[in-house]
């Protein structure tokens, strides 16, 4: 499964030149407002057309200006989910889902019941959209898109109209969709939390151009790529290893080593992307005294970069690279240079959405 995008669009006030390839899983188009994310989505969907471009999904050419190929919207088989669910208000949830099926081509694809189960909307089938929460409406909109048997799902800021509680409610369903539906997803967001949690690959847009792209853990460590540099940090693919109810802790294993976090309501074996913001990682040159050994990971400095009054330090821990944000003075006091052995002390992790009782940040 590959998606190849290479498009150029020049408007009077805005020029877009974007090329990227993506594979299976969820590819995030990430960037500040006005960077061109929605423009790219519209071009892929066929809602607008570039002066020059080539868009190929799994070998099917949707657009190739050099060859004069321009597949019309209705033949592209691309599902779209926008900020607002845009459901038909006079129809029940079931009828809205069936409406999606009307646009399906060919046979196969998931059944209405399978989609309702995947998205947890089976109990809502006979209800009308007006009685649903924002998160429930978005899940129905996703279901409707899936039932049209798309070859690709586009999601443009699907959570940005929802409050934090509704976001937490819907994120696990998007994870299931990513992991179980076998459908590639291009997901637009300006939220570091969403991207860290959901993306396999990240394409960062800035001023209509690709500022950087790569696996989520590599991109989210790049303070120079992230609109809000203070949000930079590592993203670790962790697995729930066990729970200690007495201590109130869940043990996670992952590429940097084991970490313990306050109890999570997740089954053993569940995988999750854990974001470790750089500002919440401390460094010590010796094993810390008087601190529990929990969440202290030994490693070695592999990169140092000064940024204003801060120093961003990359530390190789096991198979992962953690990012720590120190003041320049502390980096100097510790005498850090490339190769220095250090202990990374993880102060807190950002468990965005749906994991802890209140979501948000967990102090360890
Ligand atoms: P994003 O989704 O990243 O916020 P957009 O792709 O919506 O950004 O917009 C990129 C730029 O293109 C912005 O400067 C915006 O004002 C401009 N733009 C968006 N849509 C149109 C349009 N239909 N006509 C002219 N300019 C547009
Ligand atoms: Mg937009």
TrEMBL record:
NCBIfam families: modC_ABC. Belongs to the ABC transporter superfamily. Keywords: ATP-binding, Cell inner membrane, Cell membrane, Membrane, Molybdenum, Nucleotide-binding, Translocase, Transport. GO terms for cellular component: membrane. InterPro entries: AAA+_ATPase (IPR003593), ABC_transporter-like_ATP-bd (IPR003439), ABC_transporter-like_CS (IPR017871), Mo/tungstate-bd_C_term_dom (IPR008995), ModC_ABC_ATP-bd (IPR011868), Molybdenum_import_ModC (IPR050334), Mop_domain (IPR004606), P-loop_NTPase (IPR027417). It comes from Methylorubrum salsuginis. Residues 2-232 form the ABC transporter domain. It holds the Pfam family TOBE. This is Molybdate transport system ATP-binding protein. One of its GO terms (molecular function) is ATP binding. The lineage of its organism: Bacteria, Pseudomonadati, Pseudomonadota, Alphaproteobacteria, Hyphomicrobiales. Residues 290-355 form the Mop domain. It comes from the Bacteria.
